[in-house]
Recover the amino acids of this structure.
């Protein structure tokens, strides 16, 4: 049976300060690797972003934040790779992948920048978004206050992150299982061709749009994979 492969977690150098690959390079890499599509999840304005924190209006900030996605979408159309929009919201190193809400939604919701993460999670889910706790057991000095888990406020857990350790992924898998949360996988790709391992989801049907993606995750009609 044919499956369609999707990258769910990647960054572009246009927007994510830690990324080394441009949107065009990411698209080229995944098209050559046989993927049907990617979701661009650049670090949001509360994370490791290239978007200036001062001197811009909210509209200007969102426009700059969406440049990686816009560039990827344009390149994807040229090579036949589907490109969808998301972001990675960061709270002192605790990160949540957010799907299903559009750039226009961001333009209307500047107040999310003033929300503590527990309110942000409730709000975006109430608004129709889907939230995945990214690499929940990542350990690093920059994670303020240590590991934080929010099992009642997310939809899924990234149990395979291609850039995390086997131990961290195993702990995430156990966490998801114990709370009955959907398993999720993504590469967290910052460097396109230099990425040594990949992870994502496979579906029987091609995903048409980001709402279709959310429906598939909520229904469980997908497989996670690593390679």
């Amino acid at each position: 049976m044919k499956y369609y492969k999707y990258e769910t977690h990647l960054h572009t150098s246009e927007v994510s300060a830690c990324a080394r690959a441009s949107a065009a390079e990411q698209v080229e890499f995944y098209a050559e690797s046989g993927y049907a599509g990617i979701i661009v999840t650049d670090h949001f304005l509360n994370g490791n972003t290239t978007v200036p924190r001062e001197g811009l209006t909210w509209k200007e900030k969102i426009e700059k934040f969406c440049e990686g996605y816009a560039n990827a979408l344009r390149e994807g159309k040229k090579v036949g790779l589907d490109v969808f929009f998301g972001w990675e919201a960061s709270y002192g190193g605790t990160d949540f992948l957010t799907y299903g809400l559009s750039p226009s939604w961001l333009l209307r919701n500047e107040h999310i920048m003033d929300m503590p993460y527990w309110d942000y999670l409730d709000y975006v889910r109430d608004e129709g978004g889907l939230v995945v706790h990214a690499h929940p057991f990542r350990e690093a000095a920059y994670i303020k206050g240590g590991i934080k888990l929010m099992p009642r406020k997310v939809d899924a857990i990234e149990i395979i992150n291609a850039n995390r350790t086997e131990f961290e992924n195993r702990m995430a898998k156990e966490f998801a299982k114990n709370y009955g949360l959907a398993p999720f996988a993504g590469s967290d790709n910052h460097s396109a061709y230099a990425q040594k391992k990949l992870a994502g989801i496979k579906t029987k049907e091609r995903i048409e749009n980001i709402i279709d993606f959310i429906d598939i995750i909520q229904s469980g009609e997908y497989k996670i994979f690593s390679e």
Remarks:
- The beta strands are 4-10, 37-40, 82-91, 94-99, 130-133, 156-161, 182-186, 199-203, 223-226.
- The chain is about 30% helix and 20% strand.
